[in-house]
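Customer escalation, tier 2.

The customer says the design service returned an amino acid string that "doesn't look like it belongs to this structure." They asked us to rerun it and document both sides in this ticket. The original structure tokens are below, unchanged.
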């Protein structure tokens, strides 16, 4: 009976303390907005409806804000292909939502060998259009050739910006839309690139959420260790009970999702956070314009093939890259126009 009472005297405060933490974490997760955008793998019917709505939205806003003045901080280039649906209008519609009349100058970089309906319409609407492969046929019947073309097109579009007067260049692919708070997020990113991250050449604004590890797990483990150490100091429990409590707390934190720390941090600071870059994905990359000539000159000659595409080439280069700890854009592409498979 004495041992049972002794066990209870240690266990009950510990269970209460850890239970309170579990409830507190759950409440914080429920209160914290989900900031990071998820992928929107729309089926063909959903995609057509979404893109048509985006096109109408873009055309309405375009009528209100037809002229874009130069920006000293940011210029935007969108890599475009003929997808037979109004993808470019969807991107532009989301940019208008974020920036309105202050939208930075946008250049549309068409990678097709011929002009097509959507790009011609946008040209008539006085958008800046550059066709980098005009009247230059290419063979994409083999996967390696398609990937090589995709990589080469990316560097060519980036190269268009090497003489830009803007300090930063945002290179977007045409099957994304940006976060509704994108403008403020990019402004906070610009501030970091100007100050604490002045050595960084580029920052990726998108990574597949389920594959995120570098930024999320250290934050989860750090919070877990801090809370557990505090409880251990306050309660001085027995080792077995402490271990059980630690495991329960870690599992609960992990179950909140790997983006919980990023969401909570953003809700407090209203700022993006740069972490080490994981090799994947180039739908949205924020380049320091001064670094672009060196990046293009060094990487445009690199051979690309299956398993070694443009994202691998960029990440394995000597240039310093980072990524945001949550997605500032969402990938809406159903089928890659070039690879003919899931993007």
């Amino acid at each position: 009976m004495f041992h049972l009472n002794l066990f209870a005297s240690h266990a009950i405060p510990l269970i209460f303390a850890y239970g309170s933490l579990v409830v507190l974490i759950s409440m914080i997760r429920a209160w914290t907005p989900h900031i990071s955008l998820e992928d929107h793998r729309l089926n063909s019917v959903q995609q057509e409806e979404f893109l048509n709505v985006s096109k109408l939205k873009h055309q309405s806003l375009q009528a209100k804000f037809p002229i874009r003045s130069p920006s000293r901080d940011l210029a935007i280039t969108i890599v475009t292909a003929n997808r037979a649906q109004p993808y470019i209008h969807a991107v532009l519609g989301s940019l208008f939502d974020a920036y309105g009349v202050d939208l930075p100058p946008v250049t549309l970089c068409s990678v097709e060998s011929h002009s097509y309906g959507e790009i011609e319409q946008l040209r008539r609407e006085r958008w800046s259009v550059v066709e980098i492969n005009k009247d230059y046929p290419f063979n994409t019947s083999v996967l390696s050739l398609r990937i090589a073309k995709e990589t080469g097109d990316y560097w060519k579009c980036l190269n268009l910006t090497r003489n830009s007067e803007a300090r930063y260049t945002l290179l977007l692919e045409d099957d994304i839309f940006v976060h509704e708070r994108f403008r403020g997020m990019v402004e906070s990113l610009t501030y970091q690139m100007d100050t604490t991250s002045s050595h960084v050449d580029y920052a990726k604004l998108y990574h597949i959420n389920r594959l995120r590890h570098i930024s999320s797990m250290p934050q989860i483990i750090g919070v877990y260790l801090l809370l557990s150490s505090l409880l251990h100091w306050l309660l001085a429990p027995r080792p077995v009970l402490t271990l059980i409590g630690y495991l329960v707390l870690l599992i609960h934190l992990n179950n909140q999702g790997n983006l919980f720390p990023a969401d909570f941090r953003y809700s407090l600071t209203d700022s993006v956070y740069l972490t080490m870059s994981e090799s994947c994905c180039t739908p949205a990359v924020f380049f320091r314009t001064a670094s672009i000539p060196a990046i293009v000159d060094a990487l445009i000659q690199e051979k690309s093939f299956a398993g070694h595409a443009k994202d691998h080439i960029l990440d394995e280069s000597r240039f310093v890259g980072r990524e945001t700890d949550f997605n500032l854009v969402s990938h809406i592409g159903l089928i890659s126009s070039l690879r003919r498979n899931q993007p």
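Tier 2 assessment: The sequence is consistent with the input. The first strand starts at residue 74 and ends at 80. Residues 213-258 form one domain. Sent an explanation to the customer and offered a walkthrough call.
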